[in-house]
Every structure is written in C-alpha cells, then in structure tokens.
Amino acid sequence: MNEQAISLLQQILDQQKKQTSLLEQIATQNLALIEALADEGGVDPDAPPQTYLSGAPCR
After folding, report:
1. Measured between alpha carbons, how far is 59 from 52 in angstroms, rounded to an integer?
2. What whole-number distance in Å separates Cα of residue 9 and Cα of residue 24?
3. Which of 2, 27, 46, 58 makes a 20 to 30 Å CA pair with 37?
4. What CA–CA distance (Å, rounded) separates 19 from 13?
C-alpha cells in the first residue's frame, strides 16, 4: 500500500474510534436514564385503582 492509502485508513480508524466512544457514552446515558425512570416507583396512572374514593379496597 502506498503512504496516502495508509494515511486515509488511519484517519478512518481514528474516526471509527471516536464514533465508538460516542456510542458508548450514549449507551451509558441511556442506561442511567432507564434506571432513573425505573427507580421513580411512582403510581402508574393507567393502572386500575386499588381503593374506592371512600378508601375501601377494590375487589
């Protein structure tokens, strides 16, 4: 291979390494977001109620 081809391949490799690093950061941030949302533990607004307005449990 000539030097120009080697230089271009090295540039491609460098860019792929940067891209891989960015994708890893995105994956890490997405995982943190998913874990934070899972830890909220709030009541699901779409879930059926557990009690009536009087406080009596639903059957």
Report:
1. 10
2. 22
3. 58
4. 10
Phi/psi of residue 27, nearest 5 degrees? -60, -40
Nearest to 9, CA basis, from 51, 1, 37, 25:
1
CA 46/CA 29 separation, integer angstroms: 27
Q: Using DSSP, how many helices (H) and how many strands (E) does the chain show?
A: 1, 0
Closest CA to 24 of 13, 36, 14, 32: 32
For residue 21, the model assigns a pLDDT of 98
- Tell me, what amino acid is at 7? S
In angstroms, how far is the first alpha carbon of the chain from the final one? Answer: 77
